[in-house]
Specification:
The complex is a heterodimer.
Chain A lengths: L1 H33 L3 H21 L3 H26 L12 H26 L16 H11 L1 H22 L2 H5 L1
Helix pairs in contact in A: 1-2, 2-3, 5-6
Chain B lengths: L5 H21 L3 H26 L3 H29 L15
Classes of the chains: A mainly alpha, B mainly alpha.
């Protein structure tokens, strides 16, 4: 009996954490899109990434959650903040500028995309996503991820490193000062 | 898993993808477009990880890590472009960047 009570209490706790994470995820997503100052948008993205990391933890993906916080909040958002500070404040509100038909078309296109995703996933899943059960304790741990990544998916790992190297070279070339004299 | 099942996570991912797509389409500042692109990539990551949990398959988590690396590359090149545009005194409005000639 006490086990049942403890399990249901755990369920309620997980639901509470999930609801808070989902709400803050969507709210910060809306904030990223609607803030007129890009600096605040980048700060809202940190909240979005943090709440997504909480959801990854609920999905027993500990390593991906840690990598998310390290890579995104630690590197990507900091890079965004540096560039926003470099180019200076450029405010623009989300609904201004450009013809009105463009804004209406954008909203319509985004809504159509959302409906398409929901319909596609709903038709494909059709109740198949409702059951849930336990996974092993090793699921999502760094050792497990490392074994899969470096044994089963070694080619993807190596290709990722090459892509990152090429992107870093491209960033350096785009940002280098010597290009200005030639243009 | 005690708590919400995978369909809830996929629904959140779909809504987040829609928000990101709306941001890409309606915003005109290049930096905010890149931020909204990050939202769309994160929505894809959430769906991948939820379905990896559902099918007890590690490939989804591996793919999510790969998507993170690709997102970092995309930000690297995109912000390099923003810096280059700013140095040439060009506007960061995406509508004024309709031609690719330097």
């Amino acid at each position: 009996m006490s086990l049942v009570v403890a399990t249901s209490a755990g369920n309620v706790l997980v639901w509470i954490v999930w609801v808070v994470a989902a709400f803050s995820c969507l709210a910060s997503g809306v904030a990223v899109v609607t803030f007129s100052n890009p600096f605040y948008s980048a700060l809202a993205l940190i909240g979005n990434l943090g709440s997504l990391a909480v959801m990854y933890l609920l999905l027993s993906a500990e390593f991906v959650a840690a990598a998310q916080v390290l890579v995104y909040a630690g590197a990507v958002v900091v890079m965004f903040l540096f560039v926003i500070a470099y180019v200076g404040p450029r405010r623009e509100t989300p609904w201004s500028g450009g013809p009105a038909w463009q804004t209406v078309g954008a909203v319509f296109a985004a809504g159509a995309l959302l409906v398409e995703i929901v319909v596609a996933v709903g038709m494909q899943a059709s109740g198949g996503l409702s059951h849930s059960d336990k996974v092993g304790p090793a699921f999502g741990t760094p050792a497990w991820i490392g074994r899969i990544f470096l044994v089963d998916h070694l080619f993807a790992f190596e290709i990722t490193s090459v892509v990152l190297l090429i992107a870093a070279m491209g960033g350096v070339i785009l940002g280098s000062h010597t290009r200005r004299a030639t243009s | 898993m005690s708590g919400p099942n995978v369909a809830w996570y996929v629904a959140i991912a779909a809504v987040l993808f829609g928000i990101g797509a709306l941001g890409v389409l309606i915003r005109r500042n290049t930096i905010v477009v890149l931020l909204s692109l990050e939202l769309m990539l994160n929505a894809g990551n959430l769906a991948l990880i939820a379905l990896a949990r559902h099918w007890h398959n590690g490939a989804g988590q591996i793919f999510a890590l790969t998507v993170m690396a690709i997102a970092a590359s995309e930000v690297c090149v995109g912000l390099g472009l923003v810096v280059a545009l700013n140095r040439r005194q060009l506007s960061l409005d995406v509508d004024s960047l309709s031609e690719l000639r330097g």
